[in-house]
Amino acid sequence: MRLTPLSATILLTLSFSSTNTLADNTSDSVDAATPQIASTYINDQILPPAIEWHGKSEALLLSADDPWATPFEQNGLKTSPNYDDTFIWLDKLIAQTDKLKKVSLDKSPQGRDIWMIVASQEGADTSATLAGNNKPSVLVQAGIHSGEIDGKDAGMMLLRDIVLGDKGQLLDNANLLFVPIFSVDGHERSTQYNRVNQRGPVNMGWRTTSKNLNLNRDYAKADALEMQHMLRAINEWQPDLYIDVHVTDGIDYQYDVTFGYNLPQGLSPASYAWLENSYRPAIESALTSQGHIPGPLVFAIDNTDITQGMSLWNPSPRYSNGYGDARHLPTILIENHSLKPYKQRVLGTYVMLEATLKTLGKQATKLKSAIKQDKFRYSPRVTLTWKEVQQKQSWDFKGIEYHMEKSPISGNEIVRWTGVPKLYPNLPVMGDTVPDIRVTRPSAYYIPPQWSEVIERLQIHGIRMTRLEQSTEMKLNQYTLRDPQFKSTDYEGRQRVTIQASLKSVTANLPVGTVRIETHQPLGDLAILLLEPQSPDSLLEWGFFNPIFTRTEYIENYAVEPLAAQMLKADPELQIAFDKALQDSNFAADPKARLRWFYERSPYYDDQYLQYPVLRQK
Protein backbone atom coordinates (compact mmCIF):
# COMPACT_ATOMS: atom_id res chain seq x y z
CA MET A 1 0.00 0.00 0.00
CA ARG A 2 1.38 3.43 -0.95
CA LEU A 3 0.81 6.14 1.64
CA THR A 4 1.21 9.91 1.53
CA PRO A 5 1.14 12.34 4.47
CA LEU A 6 -2.46 13.17 3.54
CA SER A 7 -3.77 9.63 3.21
CA ALA A 8 -1.85 7.62 5.81
CA THR A 9 -3.48 6.35 8.96
CA ILE A 10 -2.33 8.27 12.01
CA LEU A 11 -0.69 6.08 14.63
CA LEU A 12 1.12 6.78 17.85
CA THR A 13 4.76 5.71 17.82
CA LEU A 14 4.89 2.69 20.11
CA SER A 15 7.56 2.21 22.75
CA PHE A 16 8.70 -0.75 24.83
CA SER A 17 9.87 -0.83 28.42
CA SER A 18 12.41 -3.36 29.67
CA THR A 19 9.52 -5.73 30.37
CA ASN A 20 8.56 -5.60 26.66
CA THR A 21 4.96 -4.68 27.51
CA LEU A 22 3.33 -3.05 24.51
CA ALA A 23 1.35 0.10 25.16
CA ASP A 24 -1.10 -0.53 22.33
CA ASN A 25 -2.54 2.64 20.81
CA THR A 26 -3.44 1.06 17.49
CA SER A 27 -6.23 -0.97 16.05
CA ASP A 28 -5.60 -4.75 16.08
CA SER A 29 -6.28 -4.74 12.35
CA VAL A 30 -3.27 -2.58 11.54
CA ASP A 31 -0.04 -4.39 10.64
CA ALA A 32 2.78 -2.91 12.75
CA ALA A 33 5.21 -3.30 9.83
CA THR A 34 3.03 -1.19 7.54
CA PRO A 35 4.36 2.37 7.08
CA GLN A 36 2.18 4.80 8.99
CA ILE A 37 2.20 8.48 9.83
CA ALA A 38 3.08 8.70 13.53
CA SER A 39 1.86 11.35 15.95
CA THR A 40 4.46 11.27 18.72
CA TYR A 41 6.20 14.46 17.60
CA ILE A 42 4.78 17.77 16.47
CA ASN A 43 6.36 17.42 13.01
CA ASP A 44 5.26 13.83 12.33
CA GLN A 45 2.43 15.01 10.10
CA ILE A 46 4.84 16.59 7.63
CA LEU A 47 7.42 13.77 7.63
CA PRO A 48 7.44 10.63 5.47
CA PRO A 49 5.76 7.49 6.84
CA ALA A 50 7.60 5.51 9.50
CA ILE A 51 7.88 1.74 10.00
CA GLU A 52 7.26 0.51 13.53
CA TRP A 53 10.57 -0.81 14.85
CA HIS A 54 11.44 -3.31 17.57
CA GLY A 55 14.82 -4.91 18.11
CA LYS A 56 16.75 -6.91 20.68
CA SER A 57 18.40 -3.73 21.91
CA GLU A 58 15.09 -2.76 23.54
CA ALA A 59 16.12 -5.11 26.34
CA LEU A 60 18.65 -2.45 27.35
CA LEU A 61 15.84 -0.15 28.50
CA LEU A 62 14.74 0.16 32.10
CA SER A 63 11.11 0.72 32.96
CA ALA A 64 10.11 4.30 33.63
CA ASP A 65 9.65 3.68 37.37
CA ASP A 66 13.07 2.10 37.88
CA PRO A 67 15.13 4.18 40.34
CA TRP A 68 18.00 4.31 37.85
CA ALA A 69 16.01 5.03 34.72
CA THR A 70 17.50 7.92 32.79
CA PRO A 71 15.29 10.94 32.04
CA PHE A 72 14.95 9.54 28.51
CA GLU A 73 13.57 6.27 29.90
CA GLN A 74 11.40 8.02 32.47
CA ASN A 75 9.56 10.05 29.84
CA GLY A 76 8.41 7.52 27.29
CA LEU A 77 11.65 7.27 25.29
CA LYS A 78 10.90 10.45 23.40
CA THR A 79 12.47 13.28 25.40
CA SER A 80 16.00 14.32 26.31
CA PRO A 81 16.85 16.20 29.53
CA ASN A 82 18.02 19.80 29.59
CA TYR A 83 21.54 20.77 30.70
CA ASP A 84 20.77 20.99 34.43
CA ASP A 85 18.75 17.77 34.59
CA THR A 86 21.41 15.91 32.60
CA PHE A 87 24.12 16.66 35.13
CA ILE A 88 21.87 16.27 38.16
CA TRP A 89 21.29 12.68 37.02
CA LEU A 90 24.95 12.11 36.14
CA ASP A 91 26.14 13.58 39.44
CA LYS A 92 23.87 11.12 41.22
CA LEU A 93 25.42 8.26 39.26
CA ILE A 94 28.97 9.49 39.82
CA ALA A 95 28.32 9.52 43.56
CA GLN A 96 27.72 5.76 43.46
CA THR A 97 31.18 4.79 42.20
CA ASP A 98 34.89 5.54 42.11
CA LYS A 99 35.04 4.66 38.40
CA LEU A 100 33.55 7.93 37.16
CA LYS A 101 35.02 11.42 37.48
CA LYS A 102 33.59 14.68 36.14
CA VAL A 103 36.07 17.10 34.59
CA SER A 104 35.33 20.54 33.14
CA LEU A 105 36.89 21.32 29.77
CA ASP A 106 36.22 25.00 30.62
CA LYS A 107 33.27 27.30 30.13
CA SER A 108 31.18 28.25 27.10
CA PRO A 109 30.62 31.87 26.00
CA GLN A 110 27.45 31.93 28.13
CA GLY A 111 29.29 30.57 31.16
CA ARG A 112 28.29 26.89 31.18
CA ASP A 113 30.83 24.20 31.93
CA ILE A 114 31.54 21.74 29.13
CA TRP A 115 31.71 18.59 31.24
CA MET A 116 33.54 15.39 30.38
CA ILE A 117 32.94 12.16 32.28
CA VAL A 118 36.10 10.09 32.69
CA ALA A 119 35.27 6.38 33.08
CA SER A 120 38.06 3.99 34.08
CA GLN A 121 38.49 1.04 36.41
CA GLU A 122 41.07 3.02 38.36
CA GLY A 123 38.93 6.13 38.75
CA ALA A 124 41.42 8.40 37.00
CA ASP A 125 40.66 12.10 37.33
CA THR A 126 43.65 13.55 35.44
CA SER A 127 45.14 12.86 32.04
CA ALA A 128 48.37 11.70 33.67
CA THR A 129 46.69 9.11 35.89
CA LEU A 130 44.56 7.91 32.98
CA ALA A 131 47.64 7.48 30.79
CA GLY A 132 49.22 5.52 33.62
CA ASN A 133 46.78 2.63 33.28
CA ASN A 134 48.19 1.91 29.79
CA LYS A 135 44.75 1.28 28.29
CA PRO A 136 43.43 2.82 25.08
CA SER A 137 40.90 5.64 25.45
CA VAL A 138 37.95 6.57 23.29
CA LEU A 139 36.59 10.12 23.39
CA VAL A 140 32.86 10.23 22.60
CA GLN A 141 31.21 13.60 22.14
CA ALA A 142 27.49 14.20 21.79
CA GLY A 143 25.74 17.36 20.77
CA ILE A 144 28.30 19.12 18.61
CA HIS A 145 25.02 19.99 16.88
CA SER A 146 22.98 20.02 20.04
CA GLY A 147 19.67 19.11 18.42
CA GLU A 148 21.36 15.88 17.32
CA ILE A 149 21.61 14.62 20.86
CA ASP A 150 21.23 10.82 20.57
CA GLY A 151 24.72 10.24 21.96
CA LYS A 152 23.94 11.97 25.25
CA ASP A 153 21.06 9.68 26.21
CA ALA A 154 22.83 6.58 24.91
CA GLY A 155 25.96 7.44 26.87
CA MET A 156 24.02 8.05 30.08
CA MET A 157 22.43 4.60 29.80
CA LEU A 158 25.78 2.97 29.05
CA LEU A 159 27.52 4.63 32.01
CA ARG A 160 24.65 3.53 34.23
CA ASP A 161 25.03 -0.06 33.09
CA ILE A 162 28.81 0.06 33.53
CA VAL A 163 28.45 1.26 37.12
CA LEU A 164 25.29 -0.51 38.29
CA GLY A 165 24.60 -3.19 35.69
CA ASP A 166 26.48 -5.98 33.97
CA LYS A 167 28.74 -3.86 31.72
CA GLY A 168 31.54 -3.14 34.18
CA GLN A 169 33.98 -5.34 32.25
CA LEU A 170 33.95 -2.82 29.41
CA LEU A 171 36.49 -0.80 31.41
CA ASP A 172 38.82 -3.76 31.95
CA ASN A 173 40.75 -3.01 28.78
CA ALA A 174 39.68 0.49 27.71
CA ASN A 175 38.81 3.95 29.05
CA LEU A 176 35.82 6.09 28.09
CA LEU A 177 35.95 9.88 27.88
CA PHE A 178 32.36 11.04 27.44
CA VAL A 179 31.22 14.60 26.67
CA PRO A 180 27.40 14.46 26.98
CA ILE A 181 26.87 17.96 25.54
CA PHE A 182 29.54 19.71 23.49
CA SER A 183 27.57 22.75 22.27
CA VAL A 184 26.14 23.52 25.70
CA ASP A 185 24.71 26.95 24.87
CA GLY A 186 23.03 25.73 21.70
CA HIS A 187 21.64 22.81 23.72
CA GLU A 188 19.69 25.23 25.91
CA ARG A 189 18.16 27.02 22.95
CA SER A 190 15.67 24.19 22.87
CA THR A 191 12.11 24.01 21.57
CA GLN A 192 9.85 21.49 19.84
CA TYR A 193 10.20 23.50 16.64
CA ASN A 194 13.92 22.85 16.05
CA ARG A 195 15.14 20.21 13.57
CA VAL A 196 11.93 20.02 11.53
CA ASN A 197 13.10 16.95 9.56
CA GLN A 198 14.02 14.86 12.62
CA ARG A 199 11.84 12.48 14.63
CA GLY A 200 12.58 13.50 18.17
CA PRO A 201 13.34 14.12 20.86
CA VAL A 202 10.35 16.32 21.64
CA ASN A 203 12.50 19.36 22.44
CA MET A 204 15.72 19.75 20.49
CA GLY A 205 18.62 22.14 20.85
CA TRP A 206 19.92 24.51 18.19
CA ARG A 207 22.39 23.55 15.46
CA THR A 208 24.90 26.30 16.16
CA THR A 209 26.51 27.94 19.18
CA SER A 210 25.30 31.06 20.98
CA LYS A 211 27.50 33.02 18.52
CA ASN A 212 25.87 31.18 15.60
CA LEU A 213 29.01 29.20 14.72
CA ASN A 214 28.76 25.63 13.45
CA LEU A 215 31.27 23.66 15.53
CA ASN A 216 31.58 20.98 12.86
CA ARG A 217 32.93 23.58 10.47
CA ASP A 218 35.36 24.96 13.04
CA TYR A 219 38.03 22.32 13.64
CA ALA A 220 40.64 23.93 11.37
CA LYS A 221 40.09 27.61 12.16
CA ALA A 222 39.08 27.04 15.82
CA ASP A 223 37.21 30.33 16.19
CA ALA A 224 34.64 29.07 18.71
CA LEU A 225 35.59 29.06 22.37
CA GLU A 226 33.97 25.63 22.70
CA MET A 227 36.18 24.23 19.92
CA GLN A 228 39.31 25.69 21.48
CA HIS A 229 38.44 23.89 24.73
CA MET A 230 37.87 20.62 22.88
CA LEU A 231 41.16 20.81 20.97
CA ARG A 232 43.05 21.48 24.19
CA ALA A 233 41.30 18.47 25.75
CA ILE A 234 42.33 16.25 22.84
CA ASN A 235 45.93 17.38 23.27
CA GLU A 236 45.82 16.83 27.02
CA TRP A 237 43.95 13.52 27.23
CA GLN A 238 45.38 12.00 24.02
CA PRO A 239 42.53 9.65 23.07
CA ASP A 240 43.26 6.79 20.69
CA LEU A 241 39.81 6.97 19.09
CA TYR A 242 37.40 9.88 18.64
CA ILE A 243 33.65 9.48 18.03
CA ASP A 244 31.45 12.39 16.95
CA VAL A 245 27.72 11.58 17.19
CA HIS A 246 25.33 13.29 14.75
CA VAL A 247 21.90 12.83 13.21
CA THR A 248 21.77 13.21 9.44
CA ASP A 249 19.28 14.87 7.09
CA GLY A 250 18.48 14.23 3.47
CA ILE A 251 16.79 11.22 1.95
CA ASP A 252 14.81 8.33 3.40
CA TYR A 253 16.42 4.89 3.59
CA GLN A 254 16.49 1.72 5.69
CA TYR A 255 19.77 2.25 7.57
CA ASP A 256 19.31 3.61 11.09
CA VAL A 257 22.99 3.93 12.15
CA THR A 258 25.47 5.05 9.51
CA PHE A 259 29.10 5.86 10.19
CA GLY A 260 32.30 6.67 8.37
CA TYR A 261 35.84 8.01 8.65
CA ASN A 262 38.76 9.10 6.49
CA LEU A 263 39.55 7.48 3.14
CA PRO A 264 42.63 5.38 2.28
CA GLN A 265 43.88 8.18 0.02
CA GLY A 266 44.16 10.54 2.99
CA LEU A 267 46.90 11.30 5.48
CA SER A 268 46.19 8.37 7.82
CA PRO A 269 46.06 5.24 5.64
CA ALA A 270 47.07 2.85 8.44
CA SER A 271 44.27 4.14 10.66
CA TYR A 272 41.84 3.76 7.77
CA ALA A 273 42.88 0.12 7.35
CA TRP A 274 42.21 -0.56 11.04
CA LEU A 275 38.85 1.20 10.93
CA GLU A 276 37.75 -0.54 7.75
CA ASN A 277 39.07 -4.06 8.41
CA SER A 278 38.91 -4.42 12.19
CA TYR A 279 36.49 -1.83 13.55
CA ARG A 280 33.65 -1.73 11.00
CA PRO A 281 33.03 -5.51 10.83
CA ALA A 282 32.81 -5.75 14.63
CA ILE A 283 30.48 -2.77 14.96
CA GLU A 284 28.20 -3.76 12.10
CA SER A 285 27.94 -7.29 13.48
CA ALA A 286 26.94 -5.97 16.91
CA LEU A 287 24.35 -3.60 15.47
CA THR A 288 22.84 -6.20 13.16
CA SER A 289 22.56 -8.76 15.95
CA GLN A 290 20.56 -6.23 17.98
CA GLY A 291 18.05 -5.50 15.23
CA HIS A 292 19.61 -2.39 13.70
CA ILE A 293 20.59 -1.76 10.08
CA PRO A 294 24.09 -0.24 9.93
CA GLY A 295 25.63 1.27 6.84
CA PRO A 296 28.25 3.66 5.49
CA LEU A 297 27.61 7.40 5.47
CA VAL A 298 24.81 8.27 3.02
CA PHE A 299 25.09 11.33 0.77
CA ALA A 300 22.94 11.16 -2.35
CA ILE A 301 24.16 12.94 -5.47
CA ASP A 302 20.55 13.93 -6.22
CA ASN A 303 17.99 13.65 -3.40
CA THR A 304 15.20 13.40 -5.98
CA ASP A 305 16.82 10.67 -8.08
CA ILE A 306 18.53 7.87 -6.17
CA THR A 307 19.65 6.21 -9.40
CA GLN A 308 22.16 9.03 -9.87
CA GLY A 309 24.16 7.33 -7.13
CA MET A 310 25.96 8.21 -3.92
CA SER A 311 28.82 10.47 -3.00
CA LEU A 312 31.83 9.14 -1.13
CA TRP A 313 32.84 11.95 1.22
CA ASN A 314 36.48 12.98 1.50
CA PRO A 315 36.21 15.58 4.30
CA SER A 316 38.60 18.46 4.83
CA PRO A 317 39.94 19.42 8.29
CA ARG A 318 37.05 21.76 9.08
CA TYR A 319 35.04 18.61 9.90
CA SER A 320 35.71 16.23 12.79
CA ASN A 321 36.61 13.20 10.67
CA GLY A 322 38.69 15.25 8.23
CA TYR A 323 40.50 16.83 11.15
CA GLY A 324 41.13 13.40 12.64
CA ASP A 325 42.71 12.30 9.37
CA ALA A 326 45.02 15.34 9.37
CA ARG A 327 46.17 14.91 12.97
CA HIS A 328 46.26 11.08 12.83
CA LEU A 329 43.54 10.57 15.41
CA PRO A 330 41.18 7.86 14.10
CA THR A 331 37.84 9.65 14.06
CA ILE A 332 34.41 8.16 13.47
CA LEU A 333 31.47 10.26 12.35
CA ILE A 334 28.16 8.67 13.37
CA GLU A 335 25.13 9.86 11.41
CA ASN A 336 21.95 8.32 12.77
CA HIS A 337 19.00 8.57 10.41
CA SER A 338 16.82 11.55 11.30
CA LEU A 339 13.58 9.90 10.13
CA LYS A 340 13.95 6.98 12.53
CA PRO A 341 12.21 7.37 15.93
CA TYR A 342 14.33 8.70 18.78
CA LYS A 343 14.18 5.44 20.71
CA GLN A 344 15.61 3.48 17.81
CA ARG A 345 18.44 5.97 17.28
CA VAL A 346 19.42 6.11 20.95
CA LEU A 347 19.51 2.33 21.26
CA GLY A 348 21.56 2.00 18.07
CA THR A 349 24.06 4.49 19.45
CA TYR A 350 24.25 2.57 22.75
CA VAL A 351 25.03 -0.67 20.90
CA MET A 352 27.70 1.05 18.82
CA LEU A 353 29.40 2.63 21.84
CA GLU A 354 29.38 -0.64 23.77
CA ALA A 355 30.81 -2.52 20.79
CA THR A 356 33.43 0.21 20.38
CA LEU A 357 34.73 -0.28 23.92
CA LYS A 358 34.90 -4.03 23.39
CA THR A 359 36.69 -3.69 20.06
CA LEU A 360 39.07 -1.04 21.34
CA GLY A 361 40.05 -3.24 24.27
CA LYS A 362 40.74 -6.22 22.03
CA GLN A 363 42.43 -4.31 19.20
CA ALA A 364 44.45 -1.75 21.17
CA THR A 365 47.87 -2.91 20.00
CA LYS A 366 46.90 -2.90 16.33
CA LEU A 367 45.26 0.51 16.63
CA LYS A 368 48.18 2.13 18.44
CA SER A 369 50.56 0.68 15.85
CA ALA A 370 48.46 2.14 13.03
CA ILE A 371 48.40 5.57 14.66
CA LYS A 372 52.16 5.51 15.11
CA GLN A 373 52.68 4.58 11.46
CA ASP A 374 50.55 7.52 10.35
CA LYS A 375 52.14 10.04 12.72
CA PHE A 376 55.66 9.27 11.54
CA ARG A 377 54.91 8.58 7.87
CA TYR A 378 56.08 12.01 6.66
CA SER A 379 54.93 11.63 3.07
CA PRO A 380 57.23 13.66 0.77
CA ARG A 381 54.22 15.01 -1.12
CA VAL A 382 50.93 16.12 0.38
CA THR A 383 47.63 16.45 -1.50
CA LEU A 384 45.73 19.68 -0.85
CA THR A 385 42.75 19.24 -3.19
CA TRP A 386 41.08 16.30 -4.92
CA LYS A 387 39.26 15.56 -8.18
CA GLU A 388 36.01 13.60 -8.29
CA VAL A 389 35.87 10.26 -10.11
CA GLN A 390 33.52 7.29 -10.19
CA GLN A 391 34.64 4.59 -7.78
CA LYS A 392 35.29 1.01 -8.85
CA GLN A 393 32.91 -0.41 -6.24
CA SER A 394 29.19 0.27 -6.59
CA TRP A 395 26.58 0.15 -3.80
CA ASP A 396 23.56 -2.12 -3.36
CA PHE A 397 21.65 0.55 -1.50
CA LYS A 398 18.96 -0.29 1.07
CA GLY A 399 16.61 2.52 0.22
CA ILE A 400 12.94 3.40 0.51
CA GLU A 401 10.49 3.47 -2.38
CA TYR A 402 9.43 6.94 -3.53
CA HIS A 403 7.65 8.75 -6.30
CA MET A 404 7.56 12.32 -7.56
CA GLU A 405 4.55 14.62 -7.33
CA LYS A 406 3.94 18.07 -8.77
CA SER A 407 3.58 20.51 -5.89
CA PRO A 408 0.83 23.14 -6.15
CA ILE A 409 2.77 25.15 -3.56
CA SER A 410 6.17 25.40 -5.24
CA GLY A 411 5.18 24.37 -8.74
CA ASN A 412 8.12 21.97 -8.67
CA GLU A 413 8.42 18.18 -8.53
CA ILE A 414 8.87 16.95 -4.96
CA VAL A 415 9.71 13.57 -3.43
CA ARG A 416 7.05 11.46 -1.70
CA TRP A 417 8.66 8.64 0.31
CA THR A 418 6.28 5.74 0.88
CA GLY A 419 8.00 4.00 3.80
CA VAL A 420 8.25 0.76 1.79
CA PRO A 421 11.78 -0.77 1.79
CA LYS A 422 13.36 -1.10 -1.63
CA LEU A 423 16.79 -2.25 -2.77
CA TYR A 424 18.50 -0.05 -5.34
CA PRO A 425 21.19 -2.35 -6.75
CA ASN A 426 24.55 -1.39 -8.19
CA LEU A 427 24.33 2.36 -7.63
CA PRO A 428 27.35 4.33 -8.87
CA VAL A 429 29.53 5.95 -6.22
CA MET A 430 31.40 9.19 -6.90
CA GLY A 431 34.25 10.39 -4.73
CA ASP A 432 37.04 12.97 -4.52
CA THR A 433 39.87 10.46 -4.59
CA VAL A 434 42.25 11.61 -7.37
CA PRO A 435 44.96 14.06 -6.25
CA ASP A 436 44.68 17.55 -7.75
CA ILE A 437 46.89 20.24 -6.15
CA ARG A 438 49.90 18.63 -4.46
CA VAL A 439 52.90 20.19 -2.72
CA THR A 440 56.29 18.91 -1.68
CA ARG A 441 56.79 18.64 2.03
CA PRO A 442 58.90 21.52 3.39
CA SER A 443 61.23 20.84 6.29
CA ALA A 444 59.81 23.84 8.15
CA TYR A 445 57.65 26.96 7.99
CA TYR A 446 58.56 30.40 9.36
CA ILE A 447 55.84 32.78 10.59
CA PRO A 448 56.77 36.37 11.50
CA PRO A 449 55.71 37.33 15.06
CA GLN A 450 53.17 39.95 14.01
CA TRP A 451 50.83 37.17 12.85
CA SER A 452 50.04 36.39 16.46
CA GLU A 453 46.48 35.15 15.87
CA VAL A 454 47.77 32.53 13.43
CA ILE A 455 50.49 31.45 15.85
CA GLU A 456 47.96 31.20 18.69
CA ARG A 457 45.63 28.97 16.65
CA LEU A 458 48.48 26.64 15.75
CA GLN A 459 49.35 26.41 19.45
CA ILE A 460 45.75 25.52 20.28
CA HIS A 461 45.98 22.64 17.81
CA GLY A 462 49.02 21.40 19.71
CA ILE A 463 51.50 21.94 16.88
CA ARG A 464 55.05 22.18 18.21
CA MET A 465 57.04 25.32 17.43
CA THR A 466 60.13 27.25 18.44
CA ARG A 467 60.96 30.97 18.27
CA LEU A 468 64.03 32.65 16.88
CA GLU A 469 65.94 34.39 19.67
CA GLN A 470 67.80 36.70 17.29
CA SER A 471 67.15 38.17 13.87
CA THR A 472 68.29 35.84 11.11
CA GLU A 473 68.85 36.07 7.37
CA MET A 474 67.93 32.92 5.48
CA LYS A 475 67.38 31.68 1.95
CA LEU A 476 63.81 30.41 1.87
CA ASN A 477 60.87 29.96 -0.47
CA GLN A 478 57.89 32.29 -0.53
CA TYR A 479 54.54 32.17 -2.29
CA THR A 480 53.52 35.03 -4.54
CA LEU A 481 49.73 35.19 -4.62
CA ARG A 482 47.56 36.29 -7.51
CA ASP A 483 43.93 36.55 -8.52
CA PRO A 484 42.41 36.66 -5.01
CA GLN A 485 38.71 35.78 -5.13
CA PHE A 486 36.77 36.84 -2.05
CA LYS A 487 33.46 35.19 -1.27
CA SER A 488 30.57 37.58 -1.67
CA THR A 489 28.92 36.44 1.56
CA ASP A 490 30.16 35.72 5.05
CA TYR A 491 30.72 32.07 5.98
CA GLU A 492 31.05 30.99 9.61
CA GLY A 493 31.91 34.51 10.67
CA ARG A 494 34.72 34.94 8.13
CA GLN A 495 35.25 36.21 4.61
CA ARG A 496 36.91 33.36 2.77
CA VAL A 497 39.32 33.88 -0.10
CA THR A 498 40.82 31.62 -2.75
CA ILE A 499 44.02 32.39 -4.62
CA GLN A 500 46.53 31.16 -7.16
CA ALA A 501 50.06 30.74 -5.83
CA SER A 502 53.56 30.26 -7.16
CA LEU A 503 56.82 29.72 -5.26
CA LYS A 504 59.99 31.74 -5.60
CA SER A 505 63.32 31.78 -3.80
CA VAL A 506 63.98 34.76 -1.52
CA THR A 507 66.51 35.97 0.97
CA ALA A 508 64.43 36.72 4.03
CA ASN A 509 65.30 38.76 7.09
CA LEU A 510 63.46 37.03 9.94
CA PRO A 511 62.94 39.20 13.04
CA VAL A 512 63.30 38.09 16.64
CA GLY A 513 60.25 36.10 17.71
CA THR A 514 59.66 34.50 14.31
CA VAL A 515 58.09 31.09 14.82
CA ARG A 516 59.64 27.99 13.25
CA ILE A 517 57.40 24.94 12.71
CA GLU A 518 59.04 21.70 11.67
CA THR A 519 56.88 19.36 9.60
CA HIS A 520 58.65 16.23 10.87
CA GLN A 521 56.48 16.05 13.97
CA PRO A 522 53.29 14.10 14.74
CA LEU A 523 51.10 17.07 13.77
CA GLY A 524 53.26 18.09 10.82
CA ASP A 525 50.62 17.08 8.25
CA LEU A 526 48.06 19.21 10.04
CA ALA A 527 50.47 22.16 9.98
CA ILE A 528 50.86 21.73 6.21
CA LEU A 529 47.09 21.77 5.59
CA LEU A 530 46.73 24.88 7.76
CA LEU A 531 49.65 26.81 6.27
CA GLU A 532 49.70 25.91 2.57
CA PRO A 533 47.75 28.80 1.00
CA GLN A 534 45.85 26.68 -1.55
CA SER A 535 44.65 24.15 1.01
CA PRO A 536 40.82 24.50 1.29
CA ASP A 537 41.05 24.84 5.07
CA SER A 538 44.25 26.85 5.23
CA LEU A 539 44.22 29.75 7.62
CA LEU A 540 44.76 31.97 4.58
CA GLU A 541 41.56 30.74 2.90
CA TRP A 542 39.73 31.27 6.20
CA GLY A 543 40.71 34.95 6.12
CA PHE A 544 43.43 35.08 8.77
CA PHE A 545 45.77 36.83 6.30
CA ASN A 546 43.26 39.09 4.53
CA PRO A 547 45.18 42.31 5.33
CA ILE A 548 47.90 41.29 2.87
CA PHE A 549 45.42 41.81 0.03
CA THR A 550 45.07 45.54 0.78
CA ARG A 551 47.24 48.05 -1.06
CA THR A 552 48.15 50.88 1.27
CA GLU A 553 50.68 52.92 -0.74
CA TYR A 554 50.02 54.52 -4.13
CA ILE A 555 51.65 56.91 -6.59
CA GLU A 556 49.88 59.84 -8.21
CA ASN A 557 49.72 60.18 -12.00
CA TYR A 558 51.67 63.41 -11.99
CA ALA A 559 54.57 61.56 -10.34
CA VAL A 560 54.49 58.27 -12.22
CA GLU A 561 54.59 59.95 -15.64
CA PRO A 562 58.07 61.53 -15.21
CA LEU A 563 59.20 58.46 -13.25
CA ALA A 564 58.26 56.23 -16.19
CA ALA A 565 60.14 58.45 -18.58
CA GLN A 566 63.26 58.22 -16.40
CA MET A 567 62.95 54.43 -16.17
CA LEU A 568 62.62 54.01 -19.94
CA LYS A 569 65.61 56.29 -20.58
CA ALA A 570 67.77 54.40 -18.07
CA ASP A 571 66.82 50.87 -19.13
CA PRO A 572 66.50 49.99 -22.86
CA GLU A 573 65.32 46.49 -21.93
CA LEU A 574 62.36 48.04 -20.11
CA GLN A 575 61.38 49.86 -23.30
CA ILE A 576 61.35 46.54 -25.16
CA ALA A 577 59.17 44.98 -22.44
CA PHE A 578 56.78 47.95 -22.50
CA ASP A 579 56.44 47.79 -26.28
CA LYS A 580 55.60 44.11 -25.99
CA ALA A 581 52.98 44.83 -23.34
CA LEU A 582 51.38 47.42 -25.64
CA GLN A 583 50.64 44.65 -28.14
CA ASP A 584 47.75 43.76 -25.82
CA SER A 585 45.00 46.06 -27.08
CA ASN A 586 43.17 46.08 -23.75
CA PHE A 587 46.34 47.09 -21.93
CA ALA A 588 47.19 49.70 -24.52
CA ALA A 589 43.73 51.27 -24.18
CA ASP A 590 43.86 51.43 -20.35
CA PRO A 591 45.83 54.49 -19.08
CA LYS A 592 45.65 53.32 -15.46
CA ALA A 593 47.02 49.89 -16.34
CA ARG A 594 49.89 51.46 -18.30
CA LEU A 595 50.90 53.69 -15.39
CA ARG A 596 50.48 50.84 -12.91
CA TRP A 597 52.84 48.75 -15.06
CA PHE A 598 55.65 51.22 -14.39
CA TYR A 599 54.78 51.68 -10.69
CA GLU A 600 54.97 47.94 -10.12
CA ARG A 601 58.48 47.90 -11.62
CA SER A 602 59.71 50.91 -9.67
CA PRO A 603 61.56 50.86 -6.33
CA TYR A 604 58.56 52.64 -4.78
CA TYR A 605 56.28 49.63 -5.16
CA ASP A 606 55.22 47.71 -2.01
CA ASP A 607 57.36 44.57 -2.18
CA GLN A 608 55.16 42.81 0.40
CA TYR A 609 51.90 43.24 -1.50
CA LEU A 610 50.48 39.80 -2.44
CA GLN A 611 53.44 38.06 -0.81
CA TYR A 612 52.38 35.29 1.57
CA PRO A 613 54.16 36.04 4.86
CA VAL A 614 54.61 32.37 5.82
CA LEU A 615 57.89 31.16 4.34
CA ARG A 616 58.97 27.61 3.54
CA GLN A 617 62.29 25.90 4.08
CA LYS A 618 63.26 23.06 1.74
From TrEMBL:
The keyword Signal applies. Its cofactor is Zn(2+). Coiled coil: none annotated. SUPFAM superfamilies: Zn-dependent exopeptidases. Residues 79-364 form the Peptidase M14 domain. Residues 1-23 form the signal peptide. Pfam families: Peptidase_M14. It comes from the Bacteria. The keyword Phosphoprotein does not apply. Keywords: Signal. The active site is at E335 (proton donor/acceptor). InterPro entries: Peptidase_M14. Belongs to the peptidase M14 family. This is M14 family metallopeptidase. The lineage of its organism: Bacteria, Pseudomonadati, Pseudomonadota, Gammaproteobacteria, Alteromonadales.
